[in-house]
Specification:
Shape: globular
Strand order of the largest sheet: 1-2-3
Number of domains: 2
Radius of gyration: 18 Å
Distance between the termini: 47 Å
Number of helices: 9
Helix content: 55-70%
Order of helices and strands: HEEHHEHHHHHH
Structural class: mainly alpha
Oligomer: single chain
Amino acid sequence: MKRGNGELSPLAQMRAGKRPIRVVSWPGDPDLKVGLRIPSDYDMQQARLDAWGYVVNVKKVDPETKRGASMLDDEIFARVLAAALVMPEGDGATDILMCDDADDLRQNTTPKEREALLRELAEFSNEMDPDLNTAEGAKRAADLIEGLEKKVGSRAALMSTLRGIPPTVLRSCIISLVERPSTSTEEKSLGS
């Protein structure tokens, strides 16, 4: 983080060049490369705060409704991805962001491209998370998934549970739930 005078703080100087970046191909274009960096806690917190303000104050939607919650989730993911996309030649300290903000990201990407990049980011984040790369971490993630499935009926209980889960573990849980085969009759009738 830069200080008011433009200099990096001692912590930022110590960590310079140590923030991992994964270079990936742009979805659908193997010749176009972009960098992904794991968002910091600050990036995640700022994404949540900005997304909440955007949904409530700009879109004028209550985030506690089903529509508002979905809009809030989409906005958080867009803001996290905007903070994670960097030029592929970044060194982890002097990363040049690929987009100005979530609006710039949405204007220049498709939903499928954002989804694919978020999957890449989640995979990269999980690989770098020491908690998920142990038997104990895997068991904790499995227990969280089971707990979330049981609480899905109660939004208040679910929100309370989600607040205590670290972002990397939460991403892992969400990806795991999404990748599970669906048993929904609606999806079966659509030929899925």
